[in-house]
Amino acid sequence: MRKIILNKKINLRKIFYLLMIILFFIIIILMYKSGRKSTDTTAFTMEQCWTDEDGNKINLNILPEGEKVSLFADVSNMELDDKRFCLKSIDTVFEIYADGELIYSYRPVNSKLLGSSYGMYVHTIRLPENTSKLNLQAEPIFYTASVTLKDIVTEDSGTYMADLYKENLPAFVRSTMTMLIGILFLVIGISNGVLSQSVGLDFTSFGMMCTLLGFSGLNDTYLLQVMTQQPALIRVITYLCLIFLPYPALLFFASATQNRNSRLLTVMKILCLTNFVATVLLTFLGITDYFYMINISHFIIVLDFFSAIFLVIRSAMQHKIQTHLLQCLTFGLAACILGTGADVLRYHLSWDNGYSSYSRISILLFMIFIGIYLLQEQIRALKQKEQENKTFITEITEAFAKVIDMKDKYTNGHSTRVAKYTAMLAEELGYDEETVEKYYRIALLHDIGKIGIPMEVLNKPGKLTDEEFEIIKAHAQKGYDVLKNISIMPELAIGAGAHHERPDGKGYPNGLKGNEIPRVAQIIAVADTFDAMYSNRPYRKRMNFEKAVSIIKEVSGTQLTSDVVDAFLRLVERGKFRAKDDNGGGTTENIDNIHQKFEQQNSSS
């Protein structure tokens, strides 16, 4: 039955993870479908206004690859005062003519190291007054791409830029957060290797993966290009991030699946380095460009995913990692495959120009899975630590209890019995299991102060003098002083210091009254009193059970706390506390009388 329940929990968790993946991708698709909406009601969108020389409508989203286009637009009916011609371009060079006169040319020239691509750029162009016809002549930088011009409007430049920042800010924040989280994991991984080992994850490689993906995502937002005015440099850094991304990603999965020595890591490292050297060198020599070499990076990323899948499957078959970690890795990997696969398809099919948006969403989802795992690992570690502390305290208290009873030869086993009785009373009083266990441990050490009492006083068979009795009474304070600085369980000192306090205030060492006495000490006092009477000693037999019970009943409210005595009596009625070997015998004399008789016997002998 327990196994069936466990399997149901695992299946529900799998369904939950799957629903999270689907929900994230639905949300992001809906966000992209919403499109850009200008806040300027007087702005005029011009993407549908372009024609060829013969007046035929031209769709800017469907243009021939590698060909120069000449576009015309009639703006004679547009209000152009205080407006600018605004657009975004991607790897496209162009000139704009107003009524046949060249007013703007954008043909950036990059260094050989940066290649031909300038990436994405935003243009706000002032049109001459009374312009009636615009001619836009554009051509793509690369022969496999088409002219790409986006969001062409006549609008106030400030409003256009404000809309740009507003539109791209969520993606910019997500990418920045991904990068910052990556840096945080890098710092944790570098500075705290012990933590990485304890949870079975390589935080350094995970941090590097997040940092690279986060920075590459910034390229899709236009904001970094606008802020730095270096679109070519930003695009090259993005390409380099994609080149190096596969290795830390595979390293993370290798470490998580206990396969850090896998040859796949060596192969992936060689592929990434070779790709980097080849891409930079061939671009510098003018043989090819980063733009074309990205296909190699995409191919290596695909290989990376297959390698990660292989490592996860092999680890699952060999049972090398925890089930929950395996589930997190599996669903996280599935999310990354879906997200990155969607971005690669979008890049090659030119659905959109945000080529890492889904990858960023998937890595954020992956972070959530890893975060869930880390949180549960932390909870598990805390519970394990708590259990270890409990075990340690139990073992220590039991060991000290034996030491106490070994010193006092007349009370052998007393501490253990009092602890047992205390637990029984606490349970009867309605305390939870954890509190009952805690009270048991506290009661085990209630007499620890006796270790500091001289043997000749502690084991004296006859009646104690007043001075000797004061020495005996000191064991309560001594016990408190010994235990009060144990930070792992400061309550241990309470039982030792207050178990001889009395509700009527005549107890010791502090003369506490009623509710001033800690609850655990009130319970220990009843257990201690009962065992003092109902246990065999070398100089006397235990007291008759009914006699001991009657004495406890008599001192209820004065020497012992009433409701604890009531709990004791209820347990007695249910057959508790009576020893198994008790056949109704035992002395019916009071403790003081027994001591006096023993003293007289010793004197006569």
CATH topology heading of the largest domain: Rhopdopsin 7-helix transmembrane proteins
Helix content: 55-70%
Query: In CATH, what is the class of the largest domain?
Result: Mainly Alpha
What's the arrangement of strands in the largest beta sheet? 1-8-3-6
CATH architecture descriptor of the largest domain: Up-down Bundle
Task: Tell me the span between the first and last alpha carbons.
Answer: 70 Å
Structural class: alpha+beta
Count every helix, treating DSSP H or I runs of 4 or more residues as helices: 20
Work out the count of structural domains: 3
Low-confidence stretches: 1-10, 30-40, 594-605
Tell me about the largest β-sheet: 4 strands, antiparallel
- The strand count comes to 8
Beta content? 5-15%
- Reading the helices and strands in chain order gives HEEEEEEEEHHHHHHHHHHHHHHHHHHH
How would you state the average pLDDT, rounded?
79
Computed over alpha carbons, the radius of gyration is 41 Å
Assembly context of the chains: single chain
What would you call the shape?
A: elongated
Describe the fold and architecture:
The protein is α+β, with helices and mostly antiparallel strands and 605 residues long. It folds into three domains: 47-155, Jelly Rolls (Sandwich), CATH 2.60.120; 167-378, Up-down Bundle (Rhopdopsin 7-helix transmembrane proteins); 408-604, Hypothetical protein af1432 (Orthogonal Bundle), CATH 1.10.3210. Helix content is 59%, strand content 8%. It has 20 helices and eight strands. The protein has helices spanning 2-34, 157-191, 193-199, 203-218, 223-228, 231-244, 246-256, 263-284, 290-318, 323-349, 357-407, 414-428, 433-444, 455-458, 466-483, 492-498, 519-533, 545-554, 562-573, 591-604; strands at residues 44-45, 69-74, 84-90, 92-98, 101-106, 120-126, 133-140, 149-155. The strands form two sheets. A four-stranded antiparallel β-sheet has the order 1-8-3-6. Strands 2-7-4-5 form a four-stranded antiparallel β-sheet, with no helix packed on it. A hairpin with a 2-residue loop joins strand 4 (92-98) and strand 5. Helix 12 (414-428) packs across helix 17 (519-533). The longest helix is centred in the middle third of the chain and has 51 residues, at 357-407. It is elongated and about 125 Å long. Mean pLDDT is 79; it is low at 1-10, 30-40 and 594-605.
